[in-house]
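Retry 2 of 3 after timeout on previous attempt. Resubmitting structure tokens to design endpoint.
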């Protein structure tokens, strides 16, 4: 039995639980005691020129999908509330049936988002959250076949992404707030090809924010993350960061959020990627948000960040983005965005340097009180020092939803 079998069993149980739950609930907004929920159905058709994000064997396809969600809340007490979203969706590839899973548990895609807010005192509250999602995109991950060969051109990377977090907020006084958070993220690959990416990542973070006058607030932040892999392709590692941030309401219509931090990362040796680096990085971000009039908002972002890598210890990302949102059309809202990202791995035999550019246009409109229509176009291109990691991709999509 394959290494991904336990993941499939767990996913299958959760999927059939959701299907049973949906079958027992009427498709209309309802209230059962204190519990209120609203069903939402979404259908989408999209065309992708390169569903596998490949330079050597790009596959185009038309994908049909539908999704059912239950969105609700439960006021457990006067101050404590449970918010939830449970969903299951179905996807079908029309031109490349090999991308359609023969397993019902991955053809019907579940998702879960539960948030529980607990008021401890007038000044302290705790927020607990559970998020589960099945992701299928190939991303930048590298597979390893049964012979130990690297696979760079996989059609899909099926994995469960589960995050559990708890954050405590303390209103120290009318101007000062501090928070402490604990978070665990688990990646469960459902295919043996990507078993080397099975990972547990645990994070503890702290933030102190103080209001300084009516237009400015700022503070300190720190975080520690530990990442552990089940197999020996990638190195286990730890990351520590500390920094400052400032939020400035420069004018009633212009806001600037800026951050600066330094990260220290240490990794074990012996991984098959042969990356012996122990990176140190200065990280920063600036986000300018301008609303020249109530119907128009644009946001400009420049940032340098780091993440645990797919083919190296870490990847440093330099990102530049610009987005416009226009709500002045009578028929609906328009959003335009563009991003330029430069990534570089810290080292090793699979180290990659690349640029990725993307543009996206979205149009959304309401159809009556409970329904809506959205259209989107997206173009992405990646240029890598590794020829097998380049790709171009066009996506056209149309979706409708109905909320009961």
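Retry 2 succeeded. Sequence:
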């Amino acid at each position: 039995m394959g290494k991904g079998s336990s993941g499939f069993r767990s996913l299958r149980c959760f999927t059939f639980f959701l299907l049973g739950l949906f079958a027992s609930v009427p498709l209309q907004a309802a209230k059962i005691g204190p519990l209120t929920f609203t069903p939402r159905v979404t259908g989408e058709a999209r065309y992708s020129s390169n569903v596998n994000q490949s330079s050597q064997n790009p596959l185009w396809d038309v994908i049909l999908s539908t999704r059912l969600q239950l969105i609700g809340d439960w006021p457990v007490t006067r101050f404590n509330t449970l918010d939830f979203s449970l969903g299951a969706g179905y996807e079908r590839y029309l031109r490349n049936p090999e991308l359609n899973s023969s397993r019902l548990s991955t053809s019907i895609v579940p998702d879960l988002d539960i948030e529980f807010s607990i008021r401890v005192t007038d000044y302290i509250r705790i927020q607990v959250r559970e998020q589960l999602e099945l992701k299928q995109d190939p991303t930048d991950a590298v597979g390893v076949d049964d012979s130990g060969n690297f696979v760079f051109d996989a059609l899909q990377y099926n994995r469960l992404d589960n995050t559990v977090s708890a954050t405590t907020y303390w209103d120290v006084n009318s101007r000062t707030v501090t928070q402490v958070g604990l978070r665990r993220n688990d990646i469960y690959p459902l295919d043996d090809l990507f078993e080397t990416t099975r990972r547990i990542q645990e994070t503890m973070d702290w933030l102190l924010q103080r209001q300084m006058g009516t237009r400015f607030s700022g503070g300190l932040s720190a975080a520690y993350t530990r990442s552990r892999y089940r197999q020996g392709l990638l190195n286990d590692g730890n990351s520590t960061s500390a920094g400052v941030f400032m939020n400035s309401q420069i004018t009633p219509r212009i806001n600037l959020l800026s951050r600066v931090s330094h990260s220290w990362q240490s990794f074990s040796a012996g991984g098959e990627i042969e990356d012996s680096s122990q990176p140190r990085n200065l990280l920063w971000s600036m986000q300018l948000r301008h609303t020249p009039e109530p119907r128009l908002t644009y946001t400009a972002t420049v940032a340098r960040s780091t993440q645990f890598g797919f083919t190296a210890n870490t990847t440093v990302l330099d990102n530049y983005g610009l987005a416009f949102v226009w709500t002045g059309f009578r028929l609906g809202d328009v959003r335009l965005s563009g991003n330029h990202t430069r990534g570089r791995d810290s080292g090793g035999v699979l180290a990659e340097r690349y640029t990725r550019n993307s543009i996206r246009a979205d149009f959304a409109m309401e159809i009556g009180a409970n329904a809506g229509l959205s259209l989107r176009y997206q173009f992405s291109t990646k240029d890598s020092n590794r020829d097998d990691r380049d790709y171009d991709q066009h996506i056209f999509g149309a979706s409708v939803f109905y909320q009961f």
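Attempt log closed. DSSP finds two helices and 21 strands in the chain.
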